[in-house]
Amino acid sequence: MIFGKSSIVAGSILFGFVHQAVAASFPSGVVTYWGQNSANSESAQKGLAEYCDDSSDVLIAGFITNYNVGDLPTLNLANACTGTFFDGTNLLKCDQVGKDIQTCQKKGKKVLLSLGGASGAYGFKSDDEGKTFAKTLWDLFGGGDSKTRPFGDSIVDGFDLDIEGGGSTGYVAMIKELRTLFKKDSSKDYFITAAPQCPFPDAMLGDVISEADVDAVNVQFYNNYCSTTGSSFNFDQWDDWAKNKSPNKDVKVFLGVPGSSTAAGSGYAKIEDLKPIIKDLSKYSSYGGVTVWDASQSYNNKDASPNFAVALADIVHDGSSSSGGDKGNDDSTSDTGNDKTVEPSTTGSTPDPTSSSTSDGGAESSTATTTTTSAPSPSNTDNNGDDDDDNEDSGQEDNTSCVQDGDECSNDGQYKCVGSGFAVCNHGKWVVQQCAAGLSCMSTTDGSSIYCTQTSGSGNKDTCSNKQSLSSIADISGPAPKAYNAARVTSQLSVKESDEDSFKAVVNARRKDSKPFGSTVVVQMTMPPNIKVTSVDNGKVQQKGRNVKIQLKNTKKKSMSLVFTIAGSVDQGSVFSAPSANSIKFMT
């Protein structure tokens, strides 16, 4: 059956008078990704229409995994659409998904289609390719004409860019061309969103979203150092981008979170930990809501009742009246009674306060030093206009609190970052030390401890002198780990958790060219002398001295990004130090 524009937008003239001249803004609330069945269970992902409930305001179907510019792209919706292709093509024919899209839209939901994702191989060689592909998207999924429309006469509400690799070439041109094509259909509003990772600026989309008009960004605050649970949570950077750098001054920033502990390598936060964070983010005028990866995870996650998706939506929608900085409609009842405090890790034995952290790259060890800082500010601060303590608002103990050498402490073995160094609670007293030369202290992504690593930009804020101005955890943007950058790969290593004798770290690697990672990937790195790597997800490890060789089995066979966890041991009594970024090599 041929789906022409006459049949697709029939009736738009009749109802065109109700379409406002000014395009509607992108909906606030909850955005849910659907289509990849990341839970990897046949029963975990249901049809799209099953998720058009009160738990989602926007649904993003993913992904288009291969552009094949000038011909037909590849569509992958996992178990939601399999086996039926248009004759003589590799393009899926997804009639039921098309019906579900209309069902969702009739319920007031917006449905977008996402490009990219981790799997596949994609990218543009030029701006002309980006413009050509925009027309392909419009004809296959928008208001254009084609004999091969995967969703039949259903029209998506726009497109999302989840560009995990392949570089930024062509995307600005594609977005601008899509905006031109959208004007051909006055029967509805179309939207363009993007899904950058939280390190700012994003390696793939940073230039794109600062040059082209997007309606919202679904920032992935996971699998990286800037997750919601660590002290380098950087929503404030994204808010600043929205206000001062985005071409669209009404762009919305969404807090992207994993829908369960298995949905990401790191960065998952339970509902009781997310609740105060979401409450705090409502003060930002750019805040739009929360984005969840993905439906197969969040709806089957029973950490909350009846599930994570419903519990999250209750929190987000309850605070929707105060989104965008309007605190006047907040419920005056304090919710801190249900907040969970994430305590920094404690150890079975108290570390030697004279132990030094170590790093590779020839850096000298540093003995313990005492810092001179201004007097600590009062423990209770109220900077956001409500009637409670901002430390309670955060739902977490600040892992970059103001402490001075010799101050009293109650939790032996507890670590905190102090400027670029760190403090350890030893026999009831804080002992302040420095990381090895060239390294700075960072919070682990689970927020429970600290580690030392190479950083780019400035180190941690002077927490003593700045404490009064820190209104929430979202303002405590710490240093950024130095990224590994080569011609074909960029990657970040962030430590998920660490204690006195072990660690877990997540490596997030992305292709900078259009050549994907293959089925087997070899990674080499040089570890500090006090660290031994003992295991890796889906692979094996060999370590000779400080030289580590990791052989990974890429479960996606072909992908533009890789996220994997390494684990190992730390010499007792020492602080984990990350390997030099310059020592990490991807054998491509």
From TrEMBL:
Any one of the GO CC terms: extracellular region
Reactions catalysed: Random endo-hydrolysis of N-acetyl-beta-D-glucosaminide (1->4)-beta-linkages in chitin and chitodextrins
Residue numbers spanned by region Disordered: 319-407
GO MF annotation: an example: chitin binding
Keywords: Carbohydrate metabolism, Chitin degradation, Glycosidase, Hydrolase, Polysaccharide degradation, Signal
Pfam families assigned to the protein according to its UniProt record, in alphabetical order: CBM_19, Glyco_hydro_18
InterPro entries, A to Z: CBM19, Cts1-like, GH, Glyco_hydro18_cat, Glyco_hydro_18_chit_AS, Glycosyl_Hydrlase18_Chitinase
Signal peptide interval: 1-23
Skewed-composition ranges (Low complexity): 344-383
Ranges of compositional bias, category Acidic residues: 384-396
The keyword Coiled coil appears for this protein: no
PROSITE patterns xrefs: GH18_1, GH18_2
Listed GO biological process terms: chitin catabolic process; polysaccharide catabolic process
GH18 domain location: 28-323
Family in the record: Belongs to the glycosyl hydrolase 18 family.
The protein, known as: chitinase
